[in-house]
Amino acid sequence: MEIFASLLLDPATWMALLVLLVFAVGAAWDRRWLRTAALVLSGAAVLALSQLLLRPLVDGVTSAEEGGAASAPPWPCRIDGKPVDRVVDYRVDLFPVVGFSCVLSDGSAYGTGRVPARATPLTAGLAVLAGGTLYASRRRPGA
């Protein structure tokens, strides 16, 4: 999974996607290229959403909800160098960046790093590119 994440976060990958998008727009006479590019970008957005955002988040919540002996603090909050003895709860952050945070007794919180910080902008960027490509594929030439 780390290889996939590093591949999608690599600037060369973004340049290749941009070249593909420009090539597809340049070939606007043949709409199949634009529809194919939109389909590929949509698939990449769904894959990034499921594997980079939702899967680590669901794993964190699931492991935090497991009960039994030694279940406090929650397992995702047990990070070396963090005040694990003061953890009272956890929360799922949705805006501006999706993540899993541990809440301390004084009300402050720290992120666990289970969800990569660059996953939210990556997913949003892929979705915008897919939408723009699909929009371009539906426009009439010369209109």
Globally, the shape reads: elongated
Oligomerization status of the protein chains = single chain
Question: Any idea what the radius of gyration is?
Answer: 20 Å
Give me the secondary-structure category.
mainly alpha
pLDDT < 50 runs, ≥5 residues: none
Task: Characterise this structure.
This protein is mainly α and about 140 residues long. The chain has 4 helices and 3 strands, in the order αααβββα. A 3-stranded antiparallel β-sheet has the order 1-2-3. The N and C termini lie far apart (about 45 Å).
Please give a quick description of this structure:
The chain is mainly alpha-helical and 143 residues long.
Task: Output the keywords.
single chain, 143 residues, three-stranded antiparallel sheet, elongated, 4 helices
SSE layout and pairing:
Layout: H1 2-8, H2 11-26, H3 31-65, E1 87-93, E2 99-104, E3 109-111, H4 119-138
Antiparallel strand pairs: 1-2, 2-3
Helix pairs in contact: 2-3, 3-4
